[in-house]
Design brief:
alpha/beta, UDP-N-acetylmuramoyl-L-alanine:D-glutamate ligase, Protein-Tyrosine Phosphatase, Chain A, 3 domains, six-stranded parallel β-sheet, six-stranded mixed β-sheet, 20 strands, globular
């Protein structure tokens, strides 16, 4: 009799895990308490994998020896509590899929910048001719890719939710881009729990592994003294220092993939100078991302020329400082993925023209104080976008003279158009979650692009 694997959640990761489990000879059952999207349902049907939707049936789920759970399902969910009570092992799709590949794994996490760093790392590896795949939190199922397992390297973006349910998985190269408070509702409102979740990325690493991290991130740096690190450490910083493996500025940065954190005698001949002036990535936050990705690529054998070429033609993910249009001298930028204070800070810092800032949504307990000086210097007007804008209005009333309230994207863009002048930047960097008015941050960003093009086209 086959061992049963139950899958909770039938999205990208859940269906990918189901397909891999079926291929490896398990008896598979998939359960989703919501409606399963048609494309995922058809994959399950074609492989004759039994499933249920709009319900969890404990009697069917708990026949399993192991449950693979989607990252969006929290520990406080009743079905998870019941599974734990029944002493059933619960793992993430990444943990499960990692058992079935011997390919190298470059794993990237962080509060901000992880998607850009993941995409860029993959891009640089491809430039270097390395057979690399992109998976994880960027939207591609790692498990479904492992089904064929035709790659030499997997570049994986990992959220803290995925890391929470990873135990024996081992990264070959681990990157933490930064850590700032986020998702605290999933971590008992204790930032130290969230930090520990991020540091799970280095568990099981040995001296052959490489740990790349942002030394300028205070929460990250402070946690280093609390963890045992067996991997070789490659810290990066914007401050020039003999104690880091990468440093520099937006025009030029320097990386040393052979850096030895334990030595005072690192060979300067190992330092690679990277021309960053023609990179498509702008802003200090993207300098950090570029240094992290370049270090990882160099560790895998990418050359200076390949890294610089990759930086020149890299195309970032949608909804991350995405230039939507330039009309009548006004630039419209979609940074809908900026759902916390730190992300919004980097976006505001990267723009050096007068900003009309679209901000608002579901406030996650944001502390706007760290934005105040930057907002005073760079923001000429705030256009709030949310069901309830009171928190944003009260926070910035003394910092910005002109604050407008809107409750839908069409009105928001129209308001921006009325006040924008030649040389201004309209920046959607909401600093908040999207689900008061939108399905998700992608929906928010797509609506922004839609109404910019509809309302700002001079031909309309």
């Amino acid at each position: 009799m086959k061992d049963r694997i139950s899958i909770l959640g039938a999205g990208e990761s859940g269906v990918g895990a189901a397909l891999l489990a079926k291929a490896k000879g398990f008896d598979v059952f998939v359960s989703d308490c919501g409606q399963i999207k048609e494309n995922y349902k058809q994959k399950l049907i074609s492989e004759e994998i039994p499933f249920e939707e709009n319900i969890h049936t404990p009697e069917l789920i708990f026949q399993a020896k192991e449950i693979v759970i989607s990252p969006g399902i929290p520990d406080k969910a009743d079905i998870v509590k019941a599974a734990k009570k029944n002493k059933i092992n619960i793992v993430s799709e990444i943990e499960f899929a990692g058992r079935y590949t011997k390919a190298k794994k470059i794993c990237i996490t962080g509060t901000n910048g992880k998607t850009t760093t993941t995409l860029l790392t993959h891009h640089l590896l491809k430039k270097a001719g390395i057979n690399a795949a992109l998976a994880g939190n960027v939207g591609n199922s790692f498990a479904e890719m492992v089904l064929e397992d035709k790659y030499d390297v997997y570049v994986l973006e990992l959220s803290s939710f995925q890391l929470d349910r990873m135990y024996n998985f081992k990264a070959d190269i681990a990157i933490i881009t930064n850590i700032t408070p986020d998702h605290l509702d999933r971590y008992d409102y204790k930032v130290e729990n969230y930090v520990r979740a991020k540091f799970r990325i280095i568990q099981n690493m040995d001296p052959n592994g490489v740990f790349i991290y942002n030394e300028d991130s205070p929460l990250l740096f402070d946690e280093l003294i609390n963890v045992d690190i067996d991997a070789r450490e490659l810290p990066f910083s914007i401050e020039e220092c003999t104690r880091v493996a990468a440093w520099g500025n937006e025009k030029m940065f320097y990386i040393n993939p052979r850096f030895d954190y334990t030595s005072d005698q690192n060979n300067t001949n190992d330092i690679i100078t990277i021309n960053h002036s023609k990179s498509t990535l702008k802003g200090k936050h993207n300098l950090y991302n570029a240094m992290a990705a370049s270090l990882a690529a160099a560790c895998m054998g990418a050359t200076k020329e390949q890294i610089e070429a990759g930086l020149r033609d890299f195309v970032n993910a949608p909804h991350r400082m995405e230039i939507v249009a330039q009309i009548n001298g006004v630039t419209y930028i979609n940074d809908s993925k900026a759902t916390n204070v730190d992300s919004a800070y980097y976006a505001l810092e990267a723009v050096h023209k007068p900003i009309i800032w679209i901000v608002g949504g579901v406030d996650k307990g944001n502390d706007y104080a760290q934005l105040m000086e930057l907002v005073k210097k760079r923001v000429k007007a705030i256009v709030c976008l949310g069901k309830d804008n009171a928190t944003v209005v009260n926070a910035f009333r003394g910092a910005v003279k002109n604050i407008y309230e809107t409750h839908d994207m069409a009105t928001c863009v129209q308001q921006c158009n009325e006040i924008a002048q030649d040389g201004d930047v309209v920046l959607l960097s909401p600093c908040c979650a999207s689900f008061d008015l939108f399905k998700n941050y992608e929906d928010r960003g797509e609506q922004f692009k839609k109404y910019v093009k509809l309302n700002c086209n001079p031909g309309n």
